Amino acid sequence: MAEPDPAARRFWIIQLARFGAAIMVVFGALIIGRLIDVPQAVGYVLLVIGAVEFFLVPNLLARKWRSPKS
Questions:
Q1: Element holding 25 (H helix, E strand)
Q2: What residues have CB less than 8 Å from 31, skipping those under 6 apart?
Q3: Eight-state DSSP code of residue 33
Q4: For the chain, counts of helices (H) and of strands (E)
Q5: Which three-class secondary structure state does DSSP give residue 37?
Q6: pLDDT tens sequence across 12-37
Q7: DSSP character at residue 38
Q8: Please, which pLDDT band fits residue 69 given cuts at 50, 70 and 90?
Q9: What is the pLDDT of residue 6?
Q10: How far apart are CA 70 and CA 46, in angstroms?
């Protein structure tokens, strides 16, 4: 069996990181909107961490995995 393409695996890891961050933002918004019975402070924390993760983590991973210039 052939080894999977590392670029495809990295692409899916980046997509999963984005999806996880988006889920955090949604749960944070639900908590802030009092649709989930958890202290609102938890909602704000989830919202902020999720937003930061959504925008920063994929870029950091892509930069780390970038091919070296020849």
A1: helix 6-32
A2: 38, 39, 40, 42, 43, 46
A3: T
A4: 2, 0
A5: coil
A6: 999 999 999 999 999 999 999 999 99
A7: S
A8: confident
A9: 87
A10: 41
Task: Supply angle C-alpha 1, 16, 47, rounded to 5.
Answer: 170
Cβ atoms of 31 and 43 closer than 8 Å: yes
Residues 57, 15: contact at Cβ < 8 Å?
A: no
Using CA atoms in the order 47, 52, 53, 59, what is the torsion angle rounded to 10 degrees? Answer: 160
3-class state of residue 16 by DSSP: helix
What does the alpha-carbon distance between residue 31 and residue 4 come to, in Å, rounded to a whole number? Answer: 40
36 close to 23: Cβ distance less than 8 angstroms = no
User: Is the overall model pTM greater than 0.90, yes or no?
Assistant: no
Query: Does residue 57 carry a pLDDT above 70?
Result: yes
pLDDT digits (tens, 9 = 90+) for 39-56: 999 999 999 999 999 999
CB 61 within 8 A of CB 10: yes
